Prior knowledge:
With 357 residues, the protein is of the alpha/beta class. It has helices at 3-12, 24-35, 41-54, 58-71, 101-110, 131-137, 147-157, 164-167, 169-172, 175-181, 186-190, 210-223, 279-290, 298-311, 318-330, 333-351; strands at 75-76, 84-88, 115-119, 159-163, 197-198, 201-207, 227-232, 246-252, 255-261. It is globular and about 60 Å long.
Amino acid sequence: xxxxxxxxLKKVGSGTHTSKQLTRQEAALATRMMLQQEATPAQIGAFLxxxxxxxxxxxxxxxxxxxxxxxxxxxxxxxxxxxxxxxGLPYDGRSxxxxxxxxxxxxxxxxxxxxxxxxSNCMPTKYGLPLIDIWQGLGIDWMGLxxxxxxxxxQATGVGFLYLPEQFPLAQGLVPYRExxxxxxxxxxxxLMWCPYAGDACLVSGYVHPPTEGLLTGTxxxxxxxxxxxxxxxxxSSDLPRARTAIIGIHRHGSEERLLLHAREYxxxxxxxxxxxxxxxxxEQLQQLLRGAPSPLMPVALWNGGFYLWQSxxxxxxxxxxxQAETLLVSGQVQETVTRLCDRIAAxxxxxxxxxx
Length: 357
């Protein structure tokens, strides 16, 4: 048993009236001790559920991210003048609405904007469709790659995906606790703000509940992130809704611009969000879109792709971004990016199959 960790546990688990906020340094220490399994399983489980019940603060989340910065992986910057876009999405995936994020990443990369994403397998508590499964459905298999191989793929294609079991096994080691406690732990909130990229970037964090937005802005300001977006997205993701107002906060160097966007004003709205059907059906819809064939996912792709092409600075307006997204999809240029990704991953495996992980 770690007596040092027990003192940290006592601070967060002493009840409504006597529990105390951890300092940023204490939160970082607690996170490092959990990631490195210096605390016992009983202590880790108790800490995670106690912290969940009490709710983390921005200072504590900043400490968690400090620990991730020390122990976690990081992709090196692209030799590009464009800032990368780094997306923080819920690791437990999507269960109700069709994800647009893979298409957004491919559209941005096709236009020369680097994109960094991270995630794991099907995960509690939602057990939704994770990004890794969508990538594999498109023939893009990030499994089994070392960090050096992911970096090489990123340098060649502009798309990088950090897969927890391979690139951050310490964090993957805490996943079983999510299932055992039956709740998302504080790490699930921190993951929305994790920026595993050493370069100029725009961080995009999705959320569901309004109080979470305050946690995001407070934490990212403490982290000194100069440019980030907060998106009240579908199922906590960065995907913009089409059936309701899209609420976005654009933060640059301490200032905030608030956007309220309506898809119907651009001919892309609907009375309900496009549902996530069976994964195989969804993958087929994605493939149809990439082939330039008619697909019911087109409005989803245009609304989200157009927005992020605009926010990346690749297009001068949302209207221009929507038009550019359609051109890229219909012309087959995004499919070419998929092919290039598949080929580069295959080449990386052939060149360095025995690289240490």
